[in-house]
Design a protein that fits this description.
211 residues, alpha/beta, six-stranded mixed beta sheet, 9 helices, 6 strands, 17% strand, globular
């Protein structure tokens, strides 16, 4: 904990005080450029990987970057998406998965997380991912299979995202862009899903997944 406390002190001394005007403007309201939905994994840092500043990303994090479909009870993700789209006017939403994902590892081997009741229940929102891998990826194993699950899960969760009324309405007006990203932990590379090529390719220019 001392490292965290020391970090806060350095943040206040070295970042906030020299940029007091910037933080005062932040206090007046937020206007993020995009919504970023990603995993809770401690190795993922959305602001660092995108080199964005405070206030530029509206971030939602949970186990497995999962978006329960519209109509799911107690859906905090739906509340965040609604606020982002209707309250903040966000028009770009990124769903970012990553390799070496513990959630996907558990999804592919449910007996291994049999004591984690809440995790098992949460992963029900990725059942489609599980079935896609079971039926279409029978010839790959190990890390390759785990990465495939993480990639397919990004696409499944984007489908769930499209069931959200504010997102569906904005898509219908041509005012919403959805992006599927994959982050590679050991290299820092980011890959995005290209709907034309039907695969994740190295990030160069934004490719809209819902196009």
């Amino acid at each position: 904990m001392q490292k965290l406390v020391s970090g806060i002190q350095r943040f206040q001394d070295q970042i906030v005080q020299p940029n007091q005007g910037f933080f005062e403007r932040l206090a007046a309201g937020q206007s993020p450029m995009a919504m970023f939905i990603t995993c809770s994994d401690s190795r993922i840092d959305p602001n660092r990987m995108t080199q964005t500043e405070h206030g530029e990303l509206f971030i939602v994090r949970n186990v497995g970057n999962i978006i329960p479909p519209s109509g799911t009870s107690n859906n905090g993700e739906a509340a965040a998406i609604e606020f982002a789209v209707e309250g903040l006017g966000i028009r770009d939403i990124i769903v970012c998965g990553h390799n070496h994902c513990g959630a996907m590892k558990g999804l592919l081997d449910l007996p291994s997380i049999k004591t984690l009741q809440h995790v098992r229940k949460w992963l029900r929102h990725a059942e489609a991912t599980q079935q896609i891998i079971a039926e279409n990826y029978t010839k790959i194993t190990g890390e390759a299979r785990l990465t495939a699950a993480a990639e397919e899960n990004v696409l499944v969760q984007i489908k769930h995202l499209q069931t959200m009324p504010p997102v569906a309405a904005a898509l219908g007006r041509g005012e919403m862009n959805l992006y599927g990203w994959m982050y590679k932990i050991e290299t820092g590379e980011v890959f995005q899903y290209d709907g034309t090529e039907r695969q994740f390719l190295p990030l160069a220019t934004p490719a809209i997944t819902n196009a």
